[in-house]
Specification:
- This protein is of the alpha+beta class and 261 residues long.
- The chain has three domains: 2-20 and 237-260; 29-44 and 145-230, Outer membrane lipoprotein wza fold like; 59-142, 2-Layer Sandwich (wza like fold), CATH 3.30.1950.
- The protein contains six helices and eleven strands.
- Strand 1 (59-66) and strand 2 form a beta hairpin.
- It starts with a helix and ends with a helix.
Length: 261
């Protein structure tokens, strides 16, 4: 009986210790066996083109600078000051692309911008404004670049991006990085398309993610990080309290059995 008790106690300790550790290789980013073996640097080519196509529901900030007018500037959407300060200002001081893919400008009317990049839309709007206002310069910005990060990240939620482009690592830094239980091999990007939604699976553990066409994110992308299976029964750090409880229980049972004999 004593031998069985000892074997059971040792087995329990091994089981807890095994469950307590997430293998280090599952926690690493940018692994490249060739680069590590040869101890050298490696370049990953990635086209950093900004090719997001505007869609219905997007908000554009449109600012007209009239260099001829002595007053200096006019804005179709209002003053640029405070335009990024709140969701309410973004809604009130921007022009929303309607269901037909058009924006409506005072005096000019509706102009189709759907499926154009921001630069293409700017050029098209500039030509339209030039017919009514000579010597003007147009500033066009996409106002609703939102990212949503869910799953095994430290701070899940929706984040507003006030720049034209952001990559995966920058996105994870906003959410406080992935947790120790994150499955870096199965990170899902849910992206809006013309026909609906697309799910893209990327492996953040491999260095070739740097040259992936999905390395740079697009507005309204949703990033979901799956948990490792070990999360169902594991611990991120060694569970000293659990081990202590098991040892205490084992000692107690041993003493009871010893007295009964």
């Amino acid at each position: 009986m004593k031998r069985l008790l000892k074997v059971g106690l040792v087995a329990a300790l091994f089981a807890v210790a095994f469950a307590s550790c997430v293998p280090q290789k599952k926690m690493l980013y940018l692994k490249d066996a060739e680069m590590i073996a040869e101890n050298l640097s490696k370049e990953y080519v990635n086209d950093r083109s900004i090719n997001y196509k505007l869609q219905s529901g997007d908000n554009l900030y449109i600012h007209v600078i009239n260099t001829i007018d002595e007053r200096g500037a006019a804005s179709i959407n209002g003053d640029i000051r405070g335009y990024l300060s709140s969701d309410a200002n973004i809604y009130l001081q921007t022009t929303t692309i309607d269901e037909d893919g058009c924006v409506e400008l005072p005096l000019i009317g509706k102009i189709m911008v759907k499926n154009l990049t921001v630069d293409e839309a700017k050029n098209k709007l500039q030509k339209a404004v030039d017919t009514y206002m000579n010597g003007s310069t147009l500033v066009v910005k996409l106002a609703n670049f939102n990212l949503t990060l869910l799953g095994e990240v430290s701070r899940p939620g929706m984040y507003k991006i006030y720049q034209q482009q952001i990559n995966l690592f920058e996105a994870f830094s906003l959410a406080g990085n992935m947790t120790n239980f994150a499955n870096k091999k199965e990170v899902k990007i849910i992206r809006q398309t013309k026909n609906g939604s697309e799910i893209i699976l990327v492996d953040m553990g491999q260095a070739d993610i740097l040259s992936s066409p999905y390395y740079y994110l697009k507005p309204n992308d949703i990033i979901y990080v799956e948990p490792l299976k070990i999360k169902q029964w594991g611990f991120t750090t060694f569970p000293y309290s659990t081990v202590f409880s098991i040892v205490t229980l084992g000692v107690t049972l041993y003493n009871i059995l010893k007295k009964s004999n």
